[in-house]
Amino acid sequence: MSQNDPQWGRRNNGDGPPDLDEVLKRITDRINRLFGGKGGGAPVSSGPGGAGIAVIAGILFIVWIGSGFYIVDESARGVVTRFGKYAETTSPGLRWHLPYPAEQVEVVNISQVRTLELGYRGNVRSKVLKESLMLTDDENIVDLQFAVQYVLKSPEDFVFSNRNPEESVLQAAETAIREVVGKSKMDLVIYEGREQVARDAQALMQQILDRYKTGVSISRVTMQSAQPPEQVQAAFDDAVKAGQDRERQKNEGEAYANDVVPRARGLASRLVEEAKGYQNSVIAKSEGDASRFSALLAEYRKAPAVTRDRLYLETMQQIYASTTKVLVDQKQGGSNLLYLPLDKLIEASSAANQANANTAVAEPGRVTAEAPSAARSGVGAQMGEDRSRDALRNRDRETRP
Description:
Layout: H1 20-34, H2 50-66, E1 69-72, E2 76-82, E3 85-90, E4 93-96, E5 103-109, E6 114-118, E7 120-121, E8 123-127, H3 129-132, E9 133-135, E10 141-152, H4 155-160, H5 165-182, H6 186-190, H7 194-212, E11 216-227, H8 233-302, H9 304-321, E12 326-329, E13 337-340, H10 342-362, H11 364-399
């Protein structure tokens, strides 16, 4: 059958397409039976009937109205636009809006923590040099990698105020960090001031984003890595090592000073105290000698000869106490020289005393019997000593003018 045949499209004998009028008639009958109407009416030659069209239109209208329902999660907000213009922001729950094309809804997650990487992508080793290389205040170049975490505080600003809000956040973060690093020293950025640089960059970043009305709230800025560029890493390591050696030697010097200075001060204090003690002893001795001399002078004025003899005897006693041998030159009776072995006499006397003491301990009765002889020998020794003293005194008198 050719396409120009007027019966084409109206027969379904298995040789061609089905009859469209029959298909529409069957659909209309089914809809009428579904809604309680009567089916099986007269065949329609040009299209479905008015009732069928109304039913179809009603179904389509219900579907269109139903397409306006939507659900907003607890962590999200719904931004409604009416003919492309912002209308409202809906809270979580089951909501409805005028279906397309009158209104549209964009559900925005406001509780999700979004992360922005600056200076690297995925891994700190995957560096983006055009973002990571920055110039410090002391004209040094540092290689920095930052991670910026943020959430949305105004979904309508995030959707409508900027064409590409994520790119705006990236540019604002890079601008803020470069400004803070450019006002800081290299040592501050790399070592002790990393947290301070991150806090200052976060505050400046938030100011820029609020001025752009991006609806973004910066929650945390973390410095992932801070180091000099790889091209000067060796020289920088040498400089760091030299600085560490300087600090180590400085600490060693301070430790040595802390050890030596207190000891020197203690020694100085001890010497001062010893000098003061010596001074006090010399002064006290001098005052004592002066007092003794004054008393001796008074006694000398009363009895000069007796006082002179006593001084002579005391002086000789002091001299002989430290000598072991005495030579006495007798002017009368030729050139005979008298030798007094005081050391031998002292040793013999000590040995005799020790033997007597041992005998007294061993034989108490014998000591009693020998006591008179020992007493007689002691008396004899005392008499010999007195005679020697008188001879020395007479010789001294003869030698005096």
